[in-house]
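Batch 3, record 17
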Amino acid sequence: VTNESMVIIGAGHAGCRAAEALRAHGWRGTIRLVEAEGRIPYQRPPLSKAVLAGSASISDSEMFPEGWLGRHEIDFRPGSVAKAIHRDVCRVELVDGSHLSYARLLLATGARARRPDIPGIDNSRVRFLRDAAGAEDLSSQLLSGAHLVIIGGGLIGMEAAASAITRGCAVTVIETAQRLLPRSAPPSIATMIGNLHEDAGVQFKLDSSVVDISGEDQACAVRLGDGTKVLGDVVLVCTGNVPNTELAESAGIAVDDGILVDPYLRTSDDRILAAGDACRVDDQVLGVKIRSESWKSAESQGELAGRNMLGAGVAYNSIPWMWSDQYDKVLQVTGYPDRGCSAVEREMENGSRLVFHLDESSHVVAVSGFGILKDVSRGVRMGQEMVRRRIFANKPMLEDRSIDLKLFVKAESDKPDR
Amino acid sequence: MTENTWRRACDVSEVAKDDVKRWDFGGRSFAIFRSQLDEFFVTDNVCTHEHAYLSDGYIDGYTVECPRHAGMFDIRSGKAISPPVCVNLRTFAVKVKQNSVYVLLD
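Prediction for the assembled complex:
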């Protein structure tokens, strides 16, 4: 039987979780896992954190326990790149010329770092941070006293800044917006995070566009819109991601800022599914298509894709959730902050803060938290329940730190008129 | 710590129903869970993935969710049930006597 294979393109988080789920849910046939980087599958979150800080290596965060792929008879293809999908015959063609037949195919092709259109972006001192090789290379450059210039004050840029500071580097972060973390955190929390970085010695150039990057003897220079030149030994560009959709698109699969999938993670070809950073999924809460770039989404979508490849027919309904470590503090966000049009803030005694994002009808659509792990995680966890249960925001109660959020959610959920 | 010894950890009233309390003893940290049905369970308090105290986590029935990365454990068996955690937690025998919670240490 030629078609009784499950093929997974991409051995990042979503692809690996799908392979695991296929075996966990009883698939005894062939599973082919196509990996492009020529590495043992690894977890990505530590790349900008412990790996850059020099406190861990990639091998400390491998995706599977040693020997797992072999024990589970996964046909693992390291260093293999898919070239085309021949949907008429259900085959994937690899760059090396081999063909893989599939009963079901999962596209877990991930995303790549966006390369902004800046003159000099090809300078030999410019780096991107997306994969293991990039993180190892960058880490080797972060010698004490080196000056790291980071273009982009988003989450990855800020995590890289914190890591480089702990290595004894000088760090300058350049951001085009007037504030840090414009996509990832509300203004009050972005200010708290910025202050923490300034206390640690990070320099910021906000509201600053980059005109060009040029090599200058021992260092390279990043020229800003106002003519200022920021000199650095290494320039790290952290300006977001682009989903890897080309393989799908050239096979005629529907794509629009991500491979489009229905709630069951099926693409426009129902033998082909997609999961993780590469896909844009019908969100069950909002009723719109969402592309998420978080660990949690890759985790739950990958697992679900594996089950649905076997015909489970389960819809994706996870509420988005992400975390970031900034020095000894944590940021956690759940829900859909960009759906919020107003906010209620709760300040806690030890300086932690929760921001409840409300939509036009004053329902909680997201919660962001920053500070001490215990307070942030509990608040954001209850926030997840508020979003899931479409809790109406009682502003005085959300603001009042003496109100226990678990009891609040329970009381609101039990109200008969909801 | 020496061989198996029952140690008094706290009063029953110090752990709310459907909640958890941290108890530090002998250089270790333990999580003392109390279910809605008034059962007690004790596990290691530090997550087996990255450092975080499970006593700061979220309890839902017989599961605890780690505050850092939301990995889940079964509080009865210590079993790791949801990534990123994959190593089980150690569990300890527990008994309640005269309104005190005792933990069997090894």
